Amino acid sequence: MINPKRTVSTKGSILPFAAFALVLIAAFVSFSFDIMRNVYAVRKLDYAAESAALYAYSNATAADGSYSRAAAQTNMTNALLSNGVAPINTAPAGPNNWSDPFESPVTFAAQDIVFNSNPSDQSELLLRVTARRDGADALNMFFLPATYLGKLMQGQNAPQDAYVARPTRTEEIIGQPASRIGPGAPGNAGQNGSSPFIGAAVFPLAISNTQFSLAAIPSETRSNYIIDLPTAASVPSSPAAAGHLRGYFVNLATKQGSSLYYDNAFGSGDVTNLLQLLSYFSSPNSATSLPPALVERGSLIGTFDPAGVNFQSRLSALVSALQQLPLGHFYILPVLAGDSTFSGRMPVVGFARMQLVQVTSPSNGQLQLIFAIGESVPVRNAVASEGYAMIPQMQAGNFLPAAVSPFTARPFDPINNSVAARPRGVALAPSLSPRRLN
Fold first, then answer.
1. Is residue 34 within a helix (H) or strand (E), and if so which, with residue range?
2. Which of the four, 211, 278, 339, 411, has the lowest number of CB atoms within 10 Å?
3. pLDDT tens digit sequence for 247-270
4. From CA 205, how far away is CA 207, in angstroms rounded?
5. Which residues have C-beta within 8 Å of that of residue 286, sequence separation ≥ 6?
């Protein structure tokens, strides 16, 4: 006879399920550890490839601003193979044994560096860099092999990828028109004042985009251009003659105690600033040299009137300072929105890469400068970016103004996987390539 008051005890029946659930949770947590570590390593490798390639590309030109394709490849390769990029780029690695670090510097070998040409501009040099974790740095999997427990119990081996992961990431860098040039490094920067960025700043002579936009057309063949220096009393009303660009000396010294970022361009002290700025490009270690300030698209700078009293009183010193500049050197010239009327400050729309050919002082007292238009290549100390401005702007908002030709971003053509051909004489900055990486 069954006792209706008797109950069946379930005590302890849940324990096997709890134990199984704990084992399952531990397995998923362990599995997630390996997976998330791989994902994290991929992100770190991507950043390492990107930052190292951008840095290497900025070394394309020599210290005097000159460029050759062979020298650029050597400069970029040396920059990547040096230990200079390793301390700032780290990623998970190994460990081969428990004494190894879990994260170590990302270094590059010759096989990680590839140079390509742009299908739309065969003379352009593109840089492709791969960051990897393989060999001694391959990622050992701690828990992933356990997912193949069935095979292991049968005496079989798990796939090799279950034991070791070898993630790689590749980035390609091209040149885009620079939107910002950093300030000049002090003359005593680096050991014995030998910083590679000394002189890699904006030269205090601006040119008008009214003429430069025509000179930058890729089909143009003219090399040398005479820089005309208009005065406030003779502002030109007609187009410039062929082979001429209108230029203006500008003050790129910062102004203290004012909402304006740059100092004025008319007083005696302003002319002294100009002399010191010019001295920076010939004698950066001189006690009287003055590094130019940061300049970006939208910067509003004042233009000197060459016929002004203060300018004329120091004309001989200015001619001497210009004649001390090394001929053949490439300089980064700010390009103004148009011809100056000397009634206010002019906005910068971009940067030109020009080679100084000749400085003369004719008998009529008027300076004459001749520059050769340079090839559009990456320059040191340059950035291609959009968004917020870094210096105070005399305009609504804090964003960089829209780019104008020839300084607009080069568009990508997905049909032939290329970037539009470079305009002439434009200072470029390293930028991530939009091209597909096959």
1. helix 15-57
2. 411
3. 999 999 998 766 789 999 999 999
4. 7
5. 187, 279
